[in-house]
Amino acid sequence: MDIESLLVHGDRAAGDAAAVAPVLYPSSTYRARDAAHFAELANQPRPQRYYARYGNPTLAQVESLLAQLENCEQALLFASGMGAMATCVLSQVGAGDHVVAQHSHYMGTTALLTRILPRMGVTVTRVDQTDTAAFAAALRDDTALVVLETPSNPTLALTDLAAVANLARSRGITTLADNTFATPLATRPHDFGIDLVVHSATKYLGGHSDLVAGVACGDAGRIEQVWQYAIVLGACSNAWEAFLLLRGLRTLALRVERSAATALALAFWLERHPKIARVHYPGLESHPQHSLARAQMRHFGGVLALETKGGYSAAQDLLARLKLAGHAVSLGGVETLAIHAASAWEGSLTPEQIAQAGVGAGLVRVAVGLESERDLIEDFAQALA
Ligand SMILES: *Cc1c(COP(=O)(O)O)cnc(C)c1O
Hints:
Number of strands: 11
CATH superfamily of the largest domain: Type I PLP-dependent aspartate aminotransferase-like (Major domain)
Bound molecules: pyridoxal-5'-phosphate
CATH architecture of the largest domain: 3-Layer(aba) Sandwich
Mean pLDDT: 96
Oligomer: single chain
Strand order of the largest sheet: 1-7-6-5-4-2-3
CATH topology of the largest domain: Aspartate Aminotransferase, domain 2
Low-confidence stretches: none
Number of helices: 16
Order of helices and strands: HHHEHEHEHEHEHEEHHHEHEHEHHEH
Radius of gyration: 21 Å
């Protein structure tokens, strides 16, 4: 099936055969039939009806759809994108291991790589993701994991997934990609050879700014390994979030296609505006990796970043004057949101880390929602006037 049809029908076999909408299982625990059944439930991986931290039928239904969307064997739902990311990373590395990652990552991922892993005896080398040779040079005999994110948050830099996957695979190194910005509609990292695909489902997959969830997708063996860590670290999701996520997923294709089309139009308009110094958007010909974007993405996503000519104060003025675009973190919802990235990161990252991630004082990240193209451009026009 095409991904659009999968979004509507892909979970049918995993749910209640007759119910058109999913059935919610709020129960935290389940009765066993007898001693043998109890022993089986307690000791088999990923039971759906044993204890809710281990698994849940509503979650299993959403996980079956998410796995198919990413063309992977299995998926595992988490309490948040960071729950998925942290659990995956911790399941793959231990003291003495080396990790290769990017300069530009989501803030929480950067904190995991630079503050938490080093305390556990894991060394991390971060490279310029636009330079495949830099990944090749960073790989070592003790490298256990390569962490990727494309397009990256918030500078929209791309990683050549096939090239990095090949480098890692030939040395037996696991690869993990955060696919939150692209969504499986634009890019399926597993098709390029990536082992583990992670999302913040809070963003496009959920799509309505009313849930927090994460997901990890991969081969059955690898996801079972991640699950062994998930039940100990405890970032488990619940039936209500899973239900909301499934409801959001039904319209994923419609939402991301519209948002990407409007983002392209807005990026094109902003790039020509006299008060804008630069627009970062993979769909623009001015994006330094536009040809990679064309090869690796089916559309260019709904997030762009702009740099104002007036730096910090011009960026803050713009945010204060926007009327439709809300001044709030997060992305991937029906409403357009914009933030000053450096302000959002100040509390968790050092000024050097912020600069290394390519985030300048005038950089504003815009997550384009589902408003009309004309209304959004008018909003930016009045705010920049
Ligand atoms: C938001 C985000 C995360 C973290 O997800 P949460 O659901 O907020 O924990 C991770 N990666 C990217 C690219 C994100 O945008």
